[in-house]
Structures are given as C-alpha cells and as structure tokens.
Amino acid sequence: MNASAPAPKTPSLRQAQRALTRERLRQGARALFSERPYTEATIDEIALRSGVARATFYLHYDSKRDLLRDLLVEDMGAHRRLYHRLAELGPRPALADLARWVRRYMKVFSDRRAALSLFNLVIGSDPAFLAEIARERDALFDDVGARHAAFRFASDAAGRSRRMGAHLLVFKIEQFCLHAAFADWEADLEAGVAILSEDLAAFLRAGTA
User: Fold this and answer.
1) pTM of the complete model
2) Least enclosed by CB within 10 Å: which of 52, 59, 96, 132?
3) The domain containing residue 42 runs over which residues?
4) Is 107 part of a structural domain of the chain?
C-alpha cells in the first residue's frame, strides 16, 4: 500500500504576516502609481499609502524598482495562466479554439490597463526594465514548455531561433491587444483575431512536427 502524499505545510504566523504586508505594499504601490508617475512617487509615499512604516518597506524590498519587479512577476502570473490554457488545447487545436484564446488574451489586457500603462511609462524612463520583462517571458516559456512541446527550446541555433520566434509572436499578440485595449482603433478586430489564430496554429504545428 502506497503511503499517502504529505499534506502541504501550513504557513507559520510570521510567514502569513509577511505575505500580507507584501500584498499591502503591492496594492498601495499600484494605487499610488495610478495617481503619480512612478518616477516621482517616493518610498515614503508608498509606505504611507500601504499603511506601514518606511522601515517596514525596506524589510520587504530593497528599492522601488525591486517592488516594481514584484508587480511585474505578479502580473505575469495572469499571462502564465493564459498560456497554460493554450497548452491544454493540444498540438493542433482548432482555429475556433485559438480565436477564443486570443479574445481571452484581449480581455486580460483590457482588465490590466493600469498595470500596462505603468510598465510602459517605466520603460520610457528605464529602458533596462525591458530586460526584466524578457527574463520573465523566458521563464514563462520554460514553464509552458513542461506542458506543450512547442515551447520547449533546445540550446542549439535552431532552438534559439524558435525561442526568438516565440518572443516575436508574443510581441505581435500583445501589440494587437494593446491597441484594442487602449486605442479607438478603427480596425476589424475579428480579422486580427483570425490572423493571430493562424499564426498560433503555425507555431504550435512547427513545434510539434
């Protein structure tokens, strides 16, 4: 008889309090950044908005940029869940299923308008933050690769080329969703959904051939 799997450990009170404080800091920062530019907002203002002391901020984050990276990681979780859904569609999903996935992607972008505005503004003042985004996207690909062969990239030239192709495909999807979410774009969005669905289908087929 197989032993049952060990029950997950319950976080200690200290761990739970730490997680709660970090969440308060993230929420306070998001609220503040929606009112004041990231470059102008101060640590003191973030702490005040979060209901904690300045010293408490530094117990959890080394800098404002460190907190910003935590916000990026949190938001990338929404993308990770999206790509998990894509992986569940299998190696050769129907175009109709891919179109529904693209529309869901559009909704996530629409729901995250404030965060997208924040990250775009930060990139304008700190272009190096793009490297943080690229690293998080690579981590996303590696995670999804455990679920779908199309996202498993070898370390050789062909694998690096496919990884770059994945980045470019994501850029294309995100730019489309960005325009759809922010701009009064007089374009046939359904035509865009159809084009992206074809691109996704080709990428998934090529990666599982």
Assistant:
1) 0.75
2) 96
3) 11-61
4) yes
